[in-house]
Structure formats: C-alpha cells, structure tokens
Amino acid sequence: MKIKRETIYGYVFILPWLIGFLGLVFYPMIQSFYFSLNDMRITPQGLRFVYTGFNNYLNVWLQDMFFIQELLAFSVDTLIRIPVIVVFALIIAMLLNQDVKFKGLFRTIFFLPVIVASGPVINQLVDQGATAIPMLDQDVIMSLLNAIFPVWFASVLSDLFNQIITILWYSGVQILLFLAALQKIDPNLYEAAKIDGGSSWECFWKITLPTIKPLILINLVYTLVSLANSGQNPIIVLIYQNMFNATRGYGFASAMAWMYAIIVGFMLLMIYLVFREKKSKRFS
C-alpha cells in the first residue's frame, strides 16, 4: 500500500510536466510532421493543404543548397566548440570548488549569462559587438591560422576566437553540473593519494576524472542541444526564413526542421556511443 501511495505521489508531481510535454511539445511535433507532408498555403479562406508525401524532404536536399552549406558549417563549428565549452566548464568548476573567498559570488557571475544572455538579448549583444574581444586583431590571427591550417579550417578557428565570449557564455549549466559532481568526491581519497606520493596531476587522472566521467557525457549532450537550438545557429534562422517564404512555406520549413532534428539526434547518438561507460567484462 505504501509503495502504491508513493507511486501515486510521484505521478502527481510529474503531472504538470506531462501536461506541458503533451500540449507544448508532443502535439506541435505531430502537427509539424503533418505540415511537412503537405504543401501548405495561407489563403483568405484559411489554411490550404495539398498532400505531397515526402517531396518536401527531398527538396530540402535537392533545391536548397544553403541547408547543406549551413549544416556542414554547423557540424564543424560544433566539433570545435563543444570540447572548448566542456573543458572550460571543468576548469572553472575545479577552481570554484577550491576554498576561496567569495566563491558564491563567482558561481553567480559564471551562471548569470545563462539567465541574462538568452533569446533576443544575446542577438542584441552580438549586434552591438559586446561579445567580441577588441584587443584581438582578427587579421593577424587569420594570417597565422592560414599559414598552419587549410583555409576552411582556419576560418572556423578564426570565428572561434571572434566569438569566444559568446561560446563561453554557454558554459554556466555545465559548470554547475561539474561543481555538483566535484563536491560529492570524498576529500579523504585525495589525502590518501597524497600520502602515497600522488601528485595533483595524478589525483586528477586517477580520482577526479573517473568520478565525473558520467557528467562529461551529460554535459556533452547538453552542450550539443544548447548549440543546436541557439538563436545564433544559422540553420534555425534558415528554417525561420523558409517558413515565411512565399514559394516554400510551412511545409518545406517543417521538413527542413525534421531533417535537422534527425541529424542532431544522430550526432547525439554518436556522442553517447563514444563517451558512454563501458561495462567491464567478467571472466568466469
């Protein structure tokens, strides 16, 4: 009876989330998939649907060269940005986990951009140049990168330096997750390791990193989802533009959004397969 009562309480607590998911996520997803199978037009008599099957999905690849171009750029940018964000978050979390004065204030400062710089606010900051570092000479950086890397890769790295503040602003949640994991580590483990002659570097590799390894996977997934849904993502802008395009409309934009979601899902699956915890084999 007690188990049933706790189960009921659990369902009651998650009921608001279930209602929100069904009404605000699941139903719009089904609706957008229906739109993607039709040529959708807005007429004075209302919405007009002409069933086209999966033609919109084919047209995304055959007629819109900007989607492929932006998708390749997003893939390369994400491959570079995700390690930068996660490593930066880990470093800051380890610093904030030390016994320093005003560490509560520092934690607030690093998390504040997650609250403030979101949605239209980040777009205004980027347009006004608040996210760029004026001391960096982009021409000098670009010339040095071109001398070392191919042009396409050098341009990606140059954009990384140009948007370094914006990129690091996406690390607030990751810092908190790493910080929570670091605070769960028993300090006695570090003391025992140092008594046995272990250095700080060895303690990091033997104690800290294995302990927070599950959080690394979570932060990688969160970072990819955050970048994929960012308002600064050109693919999101492209989907929005096609939505109000007179020759394409909602059906084409919905098909593009579903193709993009499938690709992001495949990237998430690859991250999971690479960074998941391998079960140790037991020998009989």
Question: Tags for this entry?
Answer:
284 residues; mainly alpha; MetI-like fold; two-stranded antiparallel sheet; 13 helices; 75% helix; 4% strand
Structure explained in plain terms:
The protein has a single domain (57-275), classed as MetI-like fold, CATH 1.10.3720. The protein is globular. Helix content is 75%, strand content 4%. The mean pLDDT is 80. It has 13 helices and 2 strands; from the N terminus they run αββαααααααααααα. By secondary structure, it is mainly α. Strand 1 and strand 2 form a beta hairpin. It has a two-stranded antiparallel ribbon with strand order 1-2.
Count of individual beta strands: 2
CATH topology: MetI-like fold
- SSE pattern, N- to C-terminal: HEEHHHHHHHHHHHH
Number of domains: 1
Q: What's the overall average pLDDT, rounded?
A: 80
Report the sheet with the most strands, covering strand number, pairing sense and barrel closure.
Answer: 2 strands, antiparallel
Shape: globular
Strand order of the largest sheet: 1-2
- Residue share in β-strands: under 5%
Spans of at least 5 consecutive residues whose pLDDT stays below 50 are: none
